[in-house]
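[Automated response] Your request has been received and processed.

Submitted sequence:
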Amino acid sequence: MALSFPAIQQALDQFSRKVIAAGIDAHIVLLAGATGGALSNTGMCVPAPLGSGRCGAGASAGGPAADTHEPALLHLDTPFAADQGMGVLLDHYAGFQHVLRRDARTHLVLTEDGAPPLSANAVIDHIEGRGAATGTTAWMPGLAEGTWTFHGVVCPNGFALGSCLLSTGIPSTTLALIERTGGVLADLNDAGAAGLDPAPETGQ
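Generated structure:
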């Protein structure tokens, strides 16, 4: 997935400028590594005007990165490997729930090149506060049914040349969540090659 990071970062910049120019009061949460290093922690940073204009790691693991500019942008410095994105999303709710607004629709966007080892039903229950899908407790308070949409920039067919070269399998859970919530599916290979306009990991 690291092959697509430059395109995704460019798209984040374009996305932020469009949001601000349109006068949209969006609260965006980004879960990604903020400095270079192992796994997929390759230095994701959102520039100004959405971000703070600075780049760098958070003061603590999993904490706000230097580009955080609340309430418009909260970037939690959370690196993850190929199939770990879903777990990272579910397990870091305590760190970003304060910027979510209960009167707004929530859009969750997962960008990864693996197959999450969780079922769609378990993920839905976790997000809506009915039961834990991982070692972290379910979201409390959870998102109400029908108030959130799941999107994905993934490898829909599993392994493929390009950004999906190291894909660990077909992301059936993510595909099911997209279908069940009416979300948008984008191919990670297209993002890596042409620079799609995906939103960050989570946003409102």
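Summary generated for your ticket: Helices lie at 5-21, 85-91, 93-96, 120-127, 172-181, 188-194. The chain has one domain: 2-203.
If you did not submit this request, please reply to this message.
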